[in-house]
Structure formats: structure tokens, C-alpha cells
């Protein structure tokens, strides 16, 4: 649906007198372009000679200083609009393009942008929309990267308040419009409209863009500001149609392939992970649907694959709506750019350096050399450009090194990793059991540790397929490991027994994963005991293989023992569990529960909530760059044979496993921090405690810091929602809000739409709960699992992503057993990721852990629309103060020697939920959004 306001008046712009000397401008153009230029110039006199276009000077408007004949009269006043356009960094070639030169002519003609002012009020007599005012904007001043376009209007005095500006871009290229300033309206001068958006060329799409002014009645006075916030029922009459049409434009018609300039937000299933047209072994089943439930992604509309009609072709760029991608305007995409370079250039280069992709590290000091010596990147004529690019884009990883023996030779590029802070502090941190346990509450994946509430442990899987359900971890084993302090039953009763349970989730995948080359899998259970010191101690690991290949179920319990054989078996079992935890962390705690589930929230927010809606304004900062980074993940991270598939234990079933976790475990109502802690038995409700919760492990750094952050978010959201919904009934009657929540539940998360646990949205309290959860996921939850990835995973023996060999005790041949007995260290290194897998993952983790220089941290930046409203401004300032205080509290906690899970010799303090950070790899800082 196009926005086509009824136009009765024209501004005087078209008839104004222009006083400058007559001359012509000649531009050289290919002959085939002349028709296009003539079309632009309309009836203007144009001469063409030898592929040159001569534009009469009388047809040009080149200076904003020209006096326009708009005057103040009894029934009208003059208004000047200044549009600030930021020049795109499109590069030299682009600036020489034909369309650019035609656009230059258009600028000279003074018809660069067509603006229309829209009154927010209806005509008092007819009850219909007032006539819009239209004028062309011409090119004005240029300052570095900015260009002003200026338009003059003669506005009738009965026009009323301006509510919106429609913009039509007459150029052949899109333009990034940052602001529009309207000078001359009586109530405020100027009226700023902050657009911060790409405006497509009218030749791509004739629909005009609408930008709403921000004006609201506050305590009897009109207040202007960046973007108005109106719930739908309060929308001024003159803007209602524009509000609805803009949303229809953003929703699109569900047809066709998306083009790069479009702003359409729509849904689709994950059917572009595989690439069957390239090779049938890259075919992957679509995720999303009854068989493999999954959240929906942003629709790209590419044609179906030739080889597999349910898959989408992987051709061209992965579309994201235009305003989700700012790369040509600012250096805002530091993170995505660097990740893009690492995934698409560095990782393939590594494949050329380490040709045997299965080659293990021979010695531990070979791993250390990645931090001290590094890897020579190949020197090849056709790689020169890539090499220079890498050292420029990822200088932390790739550095040029001069050849000392031959100074005249060109410098070599070396991939050398920074030493992670964990290993800087304690070289053997990864080896210690207490550190293994500590990281379950203060490490990279604090979302898995769960209280044991039933004893003995039993599987819920079908015994006919997976074998006996009873765990091999018996009371006797636990009694012995606890050392007489308590019996297993007493430990359960007293809430002292905890588990990392990857048994029922992984066991169904064991048989098929074991058919893949270079990997293996078990179901696993790891038990921990909460010591009187408040720390966890690992007690036992159980690894299980289901019946397969004619063999019965195999399971074995490993314990931290004193005999050398048992010690090495324990280390190997730990490597398996760590690989399970690494996979679960990356695929579920990180990808699924933050990046993936948030995509439907973003799509629905843009499709159903007008940008004037206060809830759109609240959520918008929390969605920055997420669609773009998720598209990049589909392109090169979670795709068939991408980094995840080639480096994690489940191999090509990795992403499918996140679908299983979504199916079995994910519930929106359990995603808030308090609900998540209660669900895992890590907290119980207690109204007398500060957060209304009593933690099962008192010193649980993630939970302790997270609850302060959660409370701060919830209070801010409460203040915000209560301000805009003073009457509770307004939530239930807000049609946009209701459509938003319905679409999230039934379309974005379509495979879960029948679930009874979805929160209702009837009251401000319901809305506060929903919004706090979404904001927590995009900020605190994501930061907790993202920015410590290099600190904890950079030295991969601490968190191997894959365990490649089975345990030496599982049906060993005499030769296999002898090899283990003779050289157990070698067997551990063979079980760890290969050299290629390890270095690839290290490079990716380094980038994923990096804060870009333009990172926006939670509570840091006051959105202009919030600053315009004194109540919201004050609430945000209180929020910011709370977060600043949280910084100090976390520092204080890390200094407290009684808190042994975050303070001790060689221990990395827990800072992942400290709100602010400097750029780089810091293992702290909570950005507003999932931007990497
Ligand atoms: Fe992330």
C-alpha cells in the first residue's frame, strides 16, 4: 500500500523566481543513459551532443543561499526544512557510476528530495485529513560527510501542528537521512525529526517514506522531540492513516525475493542452512515446523533450491531489512565486519595452512606455541590482498612480521593468539577439578547447573530404544565420594547435590553422531557436592552409550581417584563432559536462547508496533544489529560444514540439536532470570530476601550479579510501562500491542503456539513481565554467555568443543588399551579438537568476545524520545544510577575473600555482568543488544 496523500495545494516553490546567470553544465554520459536523464529533467531543455548532456543553467538550483519567494502573509507563514543526509561510504567506483552522475544533475536541478508536510489534525469542518504541503528540497551546504538539502514551504495558518514529513528520494541511489529540521512553525523552532534511516530511491519503490514528528501534550503544553510516543488510541486524527499504512509497508505482502533496499520484516523457517545445490551432502532438513520445532527467522524470499525444493537457494547476500544494516554510513559494524573477515577469509586460510584437518596436537607445548610463536599464514601471490586485509581488520589476531634473516623480503603474516586472562593468571587452571566445578556457577555457561531433587537418577527415555533407565551412579558411589559427611539421600534432602545433566538430550543423537567421521558422543551426567565452604566439588561422571551396532547399552561411572589409570580416565571423562557443556553453551544457552529466539521479537516489533509506539521506543535499542549478526551466522557459522558443524561434537546434527532443546526445554515464561533459577532449583521464592528469592548456592556469582541487573531492568520497565499505561485497561485495548504479542506467540514461535504457558497480555503487570524478560535476554543473559568466550574457551583444553575419541574403557581392543596405558597424555590430545578445529574456534571466540568501539551498554545512552519526557528521563536516570552502583558492588564482591567462587589465587574475578566496559576483549560489559 503506497502512501498517497491527497494533494490540493502546491507550495510556491515550483513558481519561484530564480536569479542567477544563465550557463550550462556539461556531463559526459554514455549514449544509452540520455533517455534516463531526459526522463529526470522532464520538460527542461536538454541538448545532447557526443554523449554529453548540457543542462541549461536556468534548470539548475545550486545554492541554498538563493532567496526563495516565500513570505509571511496574513493567512500563511514560511517554513524552511533542512534535511541532513549522511554520505554513504560507497567507494570510489560507486562515485563514478552512471547513476551517481545522473543524481548530480538532479541535485543541480534542485529536485533531490520531495518533501510533504502532514498536519496531525483533521479538518474541523469536514473531519477529513488536511491538505499536505509539498516542496522539493535542493542541495545545500556540504560539511565533510554531511550534505544539507533545503526546502521552503508557504504554510497556511490553519495548517495546525505538523505531525509527519513524507520524503520521496528523487535520486537513483538510496540516501541516509539522519535528521530533518523544520524552521518557522510558531510553537517551536526548530522542530527536529530524527530519522536515522535509509530512504530508498523512488525508482526502486515509489512508496514515500514517512517520518513522524515528536510532539505530545504534556501538562497542558505541547512538547516536541525526536519521535513521538503514542499508543494507537491516542494517535492524532491526521496521522492515523499514515501510522497504519507504514506498518503495512513494513509487513510487505509475503511475496517475492527481498531486495537490499527494502525494509520488509517477515517470517520464514530455517531452510537456508544447507546448500544442496552445491552438494547433496550439504543438504540439511529445515528447522521450524512440527518435525523440528524452531523459532522463525527473517524472510529473504530467495527461490527454492533445485536439488531440494524445501530448501532455499543460498545466493547473493543474506537479506536483512535496510535499517538493520548501517555499514555504509558509520563504522558501527566493527564486530560484524571483523567476524565476517574471520569467517570468510581467515578460516579458509587456516585450512590451507593445516592441511590435515584431523591432525591432533602432539604435545601440550604445541598448544602454548599458538600464543607465543603463532602460525605462518600462507604466502601466495593471489592471497596478498587477503593478507593485508586480515592484518588491517583483525590486528589482534593477524600481524605482519618482518623476516629478520632476509630484511628485504616482504613481511609475513602471522596468526598469533593473545594469551587468555585465565591462563595468564594460572597456567594450570584448566586442570583443576575445583575450577571445573567453579565454572558451572561463575564461568561461561552458568545456565546448566541444576539441583538434584530426585534420587536415584533415572532417564525418561524409552528403555526399549536407549536401554535401562537407571543411572549407574549409585548411592554407594556418592557416599564414598562425599567422604562420610552425608549419605547421598541426605545430600539430596539438604540440597547439596547438583548435576550437569546432558543425558536425555544427547543420548538420542549418539548413534547417528557416531556414524560421522572424526567425532563421537555419549549421554552424560556429572554430579557435584556443595561443600561446607560453599564451593562445588565434582563427585562423579557417568557416560552412556545406547544400544547400537548389535551391542547393548554401555555406561560407566568415573570418579576423581588417586590411582594414575583412574586419574587419566577421569581427565578423559571430563574432556567429554566439557565438550558436551561447550556444545550446549554455544548451541542452546547462547545461540538458541538469545540470538535465535530474539529474531521473532524483532520482526514482530517492526511489523506490529509503529515507531511512534512507546513500547517500540523502549525495545528498539535492544535489537541493534541482531538481525544482521544472525544472518551472518546463517551464512557462515551455523551453516552446513560451517564452523559449528565442523568443530563441535554433534557435527552436522549440531543445529538440529538446538531444535531438540527448543522443543523439550524452551519456555518463554522460564526465560526471566528468577524463573530460570527457580526452575533449576537454584533458588526458591522468599519474600524476605532482597530479590524475593533465596539462592540454593549462596555464592553463585552469575545469579547474585544477575539478580541486581534483573531488578534494575524490571524497575525501569515498570516505571516506563506505568507511565504510558496509567489505566490498566489500556493494555488490553491497545490493538498494536495485542497484535504484537499474538504474532510473537503464534507466528514467530509458531511451533509453540498451543503451549499453555505463554503469559497473557492483559495488564501493565503482564506487559512488564514480558518486556523485562526480552530485555534481560538481549542484555544480561547474552552478555553472561558471550563476552567470556575467549577468556574461558581461548585455551581450549579448558573447554574443548569436541571430544573425538571414545573412552579407552569402552570395548577396547588390547592394542587401544595398551596405547592408553603407555601414553595417556597422547590419548587426551587425540580426544581434544584437532589443530584445525582448535585454531578456527579460537579465532571465532576471540572476535565474538570483542566489544566494538561503538558498543552501546545498557543504561548508558538516553534515547532522545526518553529524554523529551521528564518522567521517563528521571526513570532512566535512576536506572543508570543503579547500574553504576552495580559496577561498584561487583568490584566489591570480587574483592571479598569469603566469596570463594569469585575470589582466590589465580581465579578470574566474575565481571561478566559488570554493565560497562572499554572496547576489546575484556570479559565484562553488558551491551543493550545482541550485536555479536
Ligand atoms: Fe552472541
UniProtKB/TrEMBL annotation:
It comes from the Eukaryota. InterPro entries: LipOase, LipOase_C, LipOase_C_sf, LipOase_CS, LipOase_Fe_BS, LipOase_plant, Lipoxygenase_dom_3, PLAT/LH2_dom. Keywords: Chloroplast, Cytoplasm, Dioxygenase, Fatty acid biosynthesis, Fatty acid metabolism, Iron, Lipid biosynthesis, Lipid metabolism, Metal-binding, Oxidoreductase, Oxylipin biosynthesis, Plastid, Transit peptide. Its EC number is 1.13.11.-. Residues 280-309 are annotated as: Disordered. Residues 229-932 form the Lipoxygenase domain. Its main location: cytoplasm. It is found in: Cytoplasm; Plastid, Chloroplast. Belongs to the lipoxygenase family. PANTHER family: LIPOXYGENASE (PTHR11771). This is Lipoxygenase. It comes from Acacia crassicarpa (northern wattle).
Amino acid at each position: 500500500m503506497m502512501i498517497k496523500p491527497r494533494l490540493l495545494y502546491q507550495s510556491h516553490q515550483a513558481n519561484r523566481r530564480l536569479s542567477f546567470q544563465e550557463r550550462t553544465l556539461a556531463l559526459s554520459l554514455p549514449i544509452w543513459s540520455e533517455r534516463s536523464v531526459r526522463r529526470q529533467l522532464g520538460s527542461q531543455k536538454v541538448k545532447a551532443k557526443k554523449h554529453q548532456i548540457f543542462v541549461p543553467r536556468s534548470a539548475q538550483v545550486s545554492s541554498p543561499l538563493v532567496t526563495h519567494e516565500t513570505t509571511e502573509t496574513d493567512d500563511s507563514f514560511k517554513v524552511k526544512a533542512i534535511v541532513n543526509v549522511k554520505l554513504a561510504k560507497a567507494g570510489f567506483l560507486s562515485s563514478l557510476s552512471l547513476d551517481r552522475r545522473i543524481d548530480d544533475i538532479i541535485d543541480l536541478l534542485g529536485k533531490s528530495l520531495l518533501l510533504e508536510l502532514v498536519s496531525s489534525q483533521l479538518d474541523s469542518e469536514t473531519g477529513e485529513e488536511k491538505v499536505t504541503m509539498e516542496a522539493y528540497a535542493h542541495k545545500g551546504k556540504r560539511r565533510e560527510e554531511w550534505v544539507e538539502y533545503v526546502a521552503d514551504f508557504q504554510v497556511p495558518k490553519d495548517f495546525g501542528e505538523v505531525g509527519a514529513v513524507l520524503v520521496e528520494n528523487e535520486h537513483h541511489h538510496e540516501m541516509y537521512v539522519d535528521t530533518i529540521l523544520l524552521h518557522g512553525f510558531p510553537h517551536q523552532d526548530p522542530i527536529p525529526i530524527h530519522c536515522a534511516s535509509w530512504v530508498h530511491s523512488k525508482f526502486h519503490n515509489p512508496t514515500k517514506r514517512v517520518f513522524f514528528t515528536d510532539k505530545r501534550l504534556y501538562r497542558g503544553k505541547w512538547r516536541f522531540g525526536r519521535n513521538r510516543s503514542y499508543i494507537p488510541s491516542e494517535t492524532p486524527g491526521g496521522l492515523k492513516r499514515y501510522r497504519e499504512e507504514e506498518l503495512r509497508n513494513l509487513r510487505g505482502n509475503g511475496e517475492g525475493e527481498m531486495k537490499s533496499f527494502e525494509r520488509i520484516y517477515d517470517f520464514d523457517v530455517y531452510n537456508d542452512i544447507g546448500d544442496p545445490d552445491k552438494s547433496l551432502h550439504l543438504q540439511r532438513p529445515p528447522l521450524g515446523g512440527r518435525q523440528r520445532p524452531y523459532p522463525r527467522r527473517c524472510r529473504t524470499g530467495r527461490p527454492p533450491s533445485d536439488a531440494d525444493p524445501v530448501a532455499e537457494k543460498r545466493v547473493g547476500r543474506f537479506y536483512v531489512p535496510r535499517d538493520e544494516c548501517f555499514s555504509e554510513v558509520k563504522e558501527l559494524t566493527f564486530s560484524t565486519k571483523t567476524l565476517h573477515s574471520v569467517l570468510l577469509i581467515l578460516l579458509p586460510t587456516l585450512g590451507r595452512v593445516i592441511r590435515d584437518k584431523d591432525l591432533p596436537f602432539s604435545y601440550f607445548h604445541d598448544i602454548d606455541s599458538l600464543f607465543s610463536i603463532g602460525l605462518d599464514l600462507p604466502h601466495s601471490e593471489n592471497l596478498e590482498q587477503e593478507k593485508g586485509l586480515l592484518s588491517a581488520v583483525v590486528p589482534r589476531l593477524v600481524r605482519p612480521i618482518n623476516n629478520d634473516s632476509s630484511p628485504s623480503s616482504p613481511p609475513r603474516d602471522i596468526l598469533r593468539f593473545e594469551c587468555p586472562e585465565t591462563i595468564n593468571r594460572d597456567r594450570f587452571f584448566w586442570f583443576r577439578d575445583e575450577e571445573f566445578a567453579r565454572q558451572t556457577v561463575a564461568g561461561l555457561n552458568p545456565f546448566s547447573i541444576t539441583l538434584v531433587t530426585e534420587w536415584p537418577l533415572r532417564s525418561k527415555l524409552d528403555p526399549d530404544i536407549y536401554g535401562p533407565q537407571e543411572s549407574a551412579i549409585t548411592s554407594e558411589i556418592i557416599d564414598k565420594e562425599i567422604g562420610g559427611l552425608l549419605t547421598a539421600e541426605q545430600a539430596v534432602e539438604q540440597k547439596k547435590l547438583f548435576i550437569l545433566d546432558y543425558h536425555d538430550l544427547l543420548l538420542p543423537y549418539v548413534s547417528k553422531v557416531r556414524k560421522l567421521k572424526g567425532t563421537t558422543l555419549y549421554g552424560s551426567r556429572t554430579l557435584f557436592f556443595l561443600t561446607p565452604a560453599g564451593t562445588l566439588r565434582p563427585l562423579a561422571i557417568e557416560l552412556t552409550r545406547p544400544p547400537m551396532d548389535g551391542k547393548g547399552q554401555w555406561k560407566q561411572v568415573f570418579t576423581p581417584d588417586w590411582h594414575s589409570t583412574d586419574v587419566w580416565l577421569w581427565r578423559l571423562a571430563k574432556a567429554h563432559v566439557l565438550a558436551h557443556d561447550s556444545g550446549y553453551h554455544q548451541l542452546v544457552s547462547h545461540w538458541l536462547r538469545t540470538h535465535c529466539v530474539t529474531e521473532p521479537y524483532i520482526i514482530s516489533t517492526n511489523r506490529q508496533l509503529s515507531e511512534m509506539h512507546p513500547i517500540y521506543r523502549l525495545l528498539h535499542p535492544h535489537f541493534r544489529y541482531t538481525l544482521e549478526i544472525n544472518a551472518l551466522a546463517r551464512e557462515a557459522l551455523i551453516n552446513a560444514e560451517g564452523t559449528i558443524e565442523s568443530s563441535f561434537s554433534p557435527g552436522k546434527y549440531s543445529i538440529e540439536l538446538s531444535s531438540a532443546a527448543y522443543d523439550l526445554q524452551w519456555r518463554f515464561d522460564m526465560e526471566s532470570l528468577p524463573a530460570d533459577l527457580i526452575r533449576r532449583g537454584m533458588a526458591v521464592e522468599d519474600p524476605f530476601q532482597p530479590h524475593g528469592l533465596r539462592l540454593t548456592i549462596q555464592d553463585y556469582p552469575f545469579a547474585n550479579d544477575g539478580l541486581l541487573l534483573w531488578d534494575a531492568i524490571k524497575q525501569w520497565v515498570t516505571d516506563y510501562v506505568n507511565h504510558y499505561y496509567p489505566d490498566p485497561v489500556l493494555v488490553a485495548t491497545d490493538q498494536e500491542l495485542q497484535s504484537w504479542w499474538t504474532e510473537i506467540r503464534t507466528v514467530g514461535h509458531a511451533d509453540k503456539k498451543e503451549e499453555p504457558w505463554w503469559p497473557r497480555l492483559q495488564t501493565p503487570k503482564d506487559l512488564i513481565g514480558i518486556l523485562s524478560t526480552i530485555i534481560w535476554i538481549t542484555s544480561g543473559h547474552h552478555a553472561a554467555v558471550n563476552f567470556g568466550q575467549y577468556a574461558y574457551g581461548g585455551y581450549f583444553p579448558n573447554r574443548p568443543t569436541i571430544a573425538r575419541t571414545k573412552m579407552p574403557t569402552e570395548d577396547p581392543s588390547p592394542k587401544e588399551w595398551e596405547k592408553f596405558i603407555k601414553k595417556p597424555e597422547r590419548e587426551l590430545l587425540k580426544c581434544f579438537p584437532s589443530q584445525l578445529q582448535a585454531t578456527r574456534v579460537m579465532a571465532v571466540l576471540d572476535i565474538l568476545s570483542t566489544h566494538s568501539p561503538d558498543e552501546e551498554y545498557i543504561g548508558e545512552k538516553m534515547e532522545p524520545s526518553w529524554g523529551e519526557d521528564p518522567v521517563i528521563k528521571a526513570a532512566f536516570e535512576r536506572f543508570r544510577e543503579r547500574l553504576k552502583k552495580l559496577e561498584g558492588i561487583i568490584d566489591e564482591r570480587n574483592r571479598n575473600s569469603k566469596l570463594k567462587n569469585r575470589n582466590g589465587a589465580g581465579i578470574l574475578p566474575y565481571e561478566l555482568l559488570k554493565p560497562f566496559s572499554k572496547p576489546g576483549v575484556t570479559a565484562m560489559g553488558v551491551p543493550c543488544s545482541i550485536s555479536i
